[in-house]
Amino acid sequence: MQYKILASDYDNTLVPFGESQPRPAMVKAVKKLQAAGGKFVLSTGRAWSAINRKGQLGGIRFDYAITCNGACVVDKNGTIAAEHPMTNEEMYALVDFCEDYNYPLQFDFKDASYAYCEYDILHKYYEQMNSVGLDCVDGEDQDRHLIDMPHAAFCIFPEGALERFHEKYGHLGLHFVQAGGQLPDGSHFYDIVRGGIDKGAGLADLCEKMGLSLAEAVAAGDSANDVGMLKVAGLGCCMSNGTDEAKAAADRVIGDVREDGLAALIEELWFDGPKAEPSDRSFGSAWETMER
């Protein structure tokens, strides 16, 4: 079967962490795919506001984007094709819990990510990361959701906090995805969406919108938040620099992000090039493995 779309994660799949945009070989491969009629889908934990930045993709223009870990699917113009926003009850539970313990918390709306708790900590954290597109605005007035509801949230929890949250609010069924490693003090990063939502659900929403089957989709990723789409796609591919969890969910392992592994996969699948072989290379620190 000829694959019709390629859904790619951003960090450490399309773009090596710490670099500002895809490498030239990756840009060339995606443009070649699109010229041949394939659709390129950016699939990310980031919100639309974090990927809608000129020059961020080095000349790549995605056809669709699965944002907020599947909670919001948009076309190339940012028009929403499918969405699963949080409810008031879910939002208030997160705010109450994080205010009680002074944990950093932001909500991802379409226009920006608003820090409802501990803005200064989050803003400083993004400055240290120095990753293009990732930042938040001061939302501690806690009124942005009066316009519309967020699609996702992001928090930093110390050890044991997630268990305490579930003890009190587990009935809400929120889906916490650990976003990579941890800070030196042992705190963890979490992306949060509604129960049942992940990149796999976003890919299913998009395929339905496009009139395609999931069997016609290729997905590429490297970490925990990619597992859902790696499992449901017709072909799920994990980068060789990916986590053990992502590799286990994938149909195959391809080359390292720093060796243009995804570009080689495109050449293989769409243009009958040589098989995209994996490498033994691995990399990443606690800061570098924070996936969004």
What's the short story on this structure?
This protein is an alpha/beta fold.
Which secondary structure elements does this structure contain, and how are they paired or packed?
Elements: E1 5-8, H1 24-35, E2 39-43, H2 48-51, E3 64-67, E4 72-75, E5 80-83, H3 88-101, E6 105-108, E7 113-117, H4 119-129, E8 137-138, E9 152-157, H5 161-169, E10 175-182, E11 188-193, H6 199-210, E12 217-221, H7 227-232, E13 235-239, H8 244-249, E14 252-254, H9 261-271
Parallel strand pairs: 1-2, 1-12, 2-3, 7-8, 12-13, 13-14
Antiparallel strand pairs: 3-4, 4-5, 6-7, 6-9, 9-11, 10-11
Q: Can you walk through the features of this model?
A:
The protein is globular, with a radius of gyration of 18 Å. It is an alpha/beta fold and about 290 residues long. It has an 8-stranded mixed sheet with strand order 5-4-3-2-1-12-13-14. A 6-stranded mixed sheet has the order 8-7-6-9-11-10. It folds into 2 domains: about 150 residues, HAD superfamily/HAD-like (Rossmann fold), CATH 3.40.50.1000; about 110 residues, Hypothetical Protein, Haloacid Dehalogenase-like Hydrolase, Chain: A, domain 2.
